[in-house]
Structures are given as C-alpha cells and as structure tokens.
Amino acid sequence: MILARAVQATRRYGDVTALDRVDLELPAGELVGLLGPNGAGKSTLLSLLVGLRRVSSGRVELFGGDPRDPAARRQIGMTPQETGLPPTLRVGEVVDFVSAHYADPVPRAELLGRFGIDDLARRQTGGLSGGQKRRLAVALAFVGRPRLVFLDEPTTGLDVTARRELWDGIRQFHADGGTVLLSSHYLEEIEALAHRVVVLGHGRVLADDTVSAIRDLVGVRRVSLVAPELPPLPGVRAVERVDGITHLLTTDADQLVRDLVHSGVSFADLEIRPSSLEDAFLAITETQPDTQPQPDAHMQSDAQAQSAAQAQPDGQVQSDAQAQSAAQAQPDGQVQSEPQPGQPQPAQPADV
Ligand SMILES: Nc1ncnc2c1ncn2[C@@H]1O[C@H](COP(=O)(O)OP(=O)(O)OP(=O)(O)O)[C@@H](O)[C@H]1O
C-alpha cells in the first residue's frame, strides 16, 4: 500500500524551480532517506507531501487523497527543519498540549523515554540546549501514534550520543510498523537508518535506489594537483580547475595516480581526499542537461557519456521501482486545491 506519492510534482517560487517533475512513492512500512545538498528541494518536497504547500503542477497524494485533508493529516507526524517551542512552557506541558490534539496519544513518559529526554520533563523549553530542543521537536512528531512520519534533517546540531538516541527512537517506530521519510545531508545518517534512499539535486530525483547502490555512486575521491596540462585519463568523472589547481573526481584514486605517473606528465602538490557528498552531487548534477556551468569553476564530466546510456531522456537515473511507478503515473497533473476556510487543521496552517 502506498501511503504517500508524488507524481511529476513541480514547485516554483517565482523564477526558482525548487522541484522539477518529481516522482516518488512511499509504501507502508518503509523507512526512506531523502538525500541532497543545500537547496536540492528536500524541504519543499516534504512540505508538499504533508500539505503545507501546494504543487505548481503535477500532484501529490497522502493516503490516496489530498494532503490538505485534515483526516489524512491526523495520521501523520512531522518535524520541520525549524521548530518554535514556547519558551516558558515545560517540556511535559508541551507534550501534553500536542497530545491533546489526538484521540490516543503516546503517554508522556513513554514518549520522552523513547527519545532519551525523560529527565527533561519539568524543564522550561527556553532553557534547553539546541540539541535537547531538537530531540523534543522530533519526539513530538510521534505523539499522535502516526502511521507516517516526515522528519526534515532531524539530527542537525546533535552530538553523537544524542544522534544515536534519536536514531533508536526512529528505528523503534519503524520496527513497530511505522513508515518514515527523513531528509538529510549525511549519507551516514541515511545509511544508519534506511534501506532505500532518494537522491535529490537541483529539484530533480537523481537516483532512487538502495543505500549501497548510492554509496557506490558517491564513493568518489578528489585528486588535486598542480600540472600544466593533463592528458585524457581513464576513470575521471569530472575535472575542475580552480586557482591553478586541477581537481579530478574519480572512484579509483590509486589507479588514477598510477595512470598519472605512467603518463609522464610533470605534476606537483598531489593531494587525495574523500570527496564530500556535495562534490559527488556536483559531479552527478553536472551531467544534467539544464545545469548552468559555475562562473569560477569549470567542470567537464566524462560521466556524462557514461551515464547517458543508463539515464532517462530527462537526465534522471531511475530504479526499476521508479520506472514502474512512472508507468502507472497519470499523464495529466492535477493541481491541489486550497483548503476551505474554517476547515480544522491538525497540523500547522498551510503556508503556500
Ligand atoms: N519560500 C521560498 N521562496 C523562494 N524560494 C524558496 C523558498 N523556499 C525554498 N526556496 C528555494 O527553493 C530551492 C529548494 O529549497 P529547499 O529548502 O526545498 O531545499 P533543501 O534541499 O531542503 O535545502 P536545505 O538542505 O538547505 O534545507 C532553493 O533554491 C531555495 O532557495
């Protein structure tokens, strides 16, 4: 059963296309990671799925209906990227206040215990550390025994221990049959929790696959050196020249160094670093047909030719599951309607 779905969902803010024809299906019982660099469109996609924003074109569904329907929204939980907590209320009071919106809430002590903050129940939220506030904000998403939870970068600002406690809480919900879509910048976080990961870049789904397949995709190293000119080298995914330094992105740095030496080219200041996820995304997204080149860093990508064979005409790399869902998609996108005035809203008022 599909709990949430986006079909060719597009969202524009003025001239900015934050999401561009995104297809996504969230089956019951899955814990799915949404991975992407800053500005990729993760928060926008979550806000469409929970009914806080509406699509510019395409459509989104929650439990088979309109995400703006209060009956659907009562069955979800969400932690946005930023949460304002009333500073003078105690942690327990905040939990009680949110609990009062639901017919069968999780008891306060049980909820706080699940997220390792039961000792904070009597503390005013204004006096909590950033990490403690974050854990409370995430815990609140689970108070109404939701079927489906959306978490937008849940562990931002948490130390290692707090992050692990929070992961445990999310894992427990999933083990009990809950469904989760969580966004993150960190592959490590997605890897710790999810089996499936959807990679967003420039508002598009770049990949929808298992975590291990995505890890291979982003297992890129950055080899930097100073060299007058380089011959064509096998295995180079992208070349970037900044301030006289050439950066080569490759999945096999050892082989690249051997090839460099064998080529006889003179080079200096060789440095090999794991590329950041941002680097990897840059290399992948540079293969997109509508991506503009950076003004101060010219990237040439050999991956373009390689991935063109696997890629769809619109530049997306699709998994089998995605291809299947695209086949079932409706050809004509339906725009979500506004909620009627006076309708009760169990979650935050819609900001469209
Ligand atoms: N309210 C808005 N008005 C104008 N542009 C917006 C608005 N919200 C988001 N955007 C733009 O849409 C794009 C996608 O933003 P979004 O917040 O969805 O990305 P994100 O992947 O969640 O980023 P981050 O990881 O930094 O939170 C960005 O270019 C952003 O500047």
Automatic annotation (TrEMBL):
Q: What is this protein called?
A: ABC transporter ATP-binding protein
**Low complexity: bias regions:** 300-340
Residue ranges annotated as compositionally biased, kind Pro residues, are 341-352
A GO molecular function held by the record: ATP binding
Q: What PROSITE patterns does the record tag this protein with? A: ABC_TRANSPORTER_1, ABC_TRANSPORTER_2
Record-annotated ABC transporter domain positions:
4-227
Q: Which UniProt keywords apply?
A: Antibiotic resistance, ATP-binding, Nucleotide-binding, Transport
User: Taxonomy-wise, where does this protein's organism fall, top ranks first?
Assistant: Bacteria, Bacillati, Actinomycetota, Actinomycetes, Micromonosporales
Region labeled Disordered — which residues?
288-352
Subcellular location as annotated? Cell membrane
Q: How does it sit in the membrane?
A: Peripheral membrane protein
Top-level taxon of origin:
Bacteria
Native source species: Plantactinospora mayteni
